[in-house]
Design a protein that fits this description.
Blueprint: H1 3-10, H2 20-47
Protein backbone atom coordinates (compact mmCIF):
# COMPACT_ATOMS: atom_id res chain seq x y z
CA UNK A 1 0.00 0.00 0.00
CA UNK A 2 1.26 3.44 -0.80
CA UNK A 3 1.38 6.21 1.81
CA UNK A 4 -1.20 8.18 -0.17
CA UNK A 5 -3.64 5.27 0.12
CA UNK A 6 -3.09 5.09 3.88
CA UNK A 7 -3.67 8.84 4.23
CA UNK A 8 -6.90 8.63 2.24
CA UNK A 9 -8.08 5.69 4.38
CA UNK A 10 -7.21 7.56 7.56
CA UNK A 11 -9.23 10.63 6.61
CA UNK A 12 -12.68 9.48 7.77
CA UNK A 13 -11.48 8.29 11.21
CA UNK A 14 -9.56 11.43 12.08
CA UNK A 15 -11.14 14.73 13.08
CA UNK A 16 -7.80 16.54 12.86
CA UNK A 17 -6.21 17.82 9.68
CA UNK A 18 -4.21 14.93 8.28
CA UNK A 19 -3.88 11.35 9.50
CA UNK A 20 -2.76 12.21 13.05
CA UNK A 21 -4.98 9.81 14.99
CA UNK A 22 -4.44 6.96 12.52
CA UNK A 23 -0.67 7.34 12.65
CA UNK A 24 -0.74 7.41 16.46
CA UNK A 25 -2.74 4.17 16.50
CA UNK A 26 -0.33 2.53 14.05
CA UNK A 27 2.67 3.71 16.07
CA UNK A 28 1.28 2.42 19.38
CA UNK A 29 0.30 -0.91 17.82
CA UNK A 30 3.78 -1.37 16.32
CA UNK A 31 5.48 -0.55 19.65
CA UNK A 32 3.26 -3.10 21.43
CA UNK A 33 3.98 -5.63 18.69
CA UNK A 34 7.74 -5.15 18.94
CA UNK A 35 7.54 -5.51 22.72
CA UNK A 36 5.56 -8.73 22.39
CA UNK A 37 8.00 -10.09 19.81
CA UNK A 38 10.98 -9.27 22.04
CA UNK A 39 9.28 -10.95 25.02
CA UNK A 40 8.61 -14.10 22.97
CA UNK A 41 12.21 -14.21 21.72
CA UNK A 42 13.56 -13.84 25.26
CA UNK A 43 11.31 -16.65 26.49
CA UNK A 44 12.32 -18.92 23.59
CA UNK A 45 16.00 -18.29 24.26
CA UNK A 46 15.63 -18.96 27.99
CA UNK A 47 13.94 -22.34 27.41
CA UNK A 48 16.99 -23.69 25.53
Amino acid sequence: MSPATLVSLAGPISTEAGPGLFLRIVLIASVVGVGLLAWLLVRAGRNN
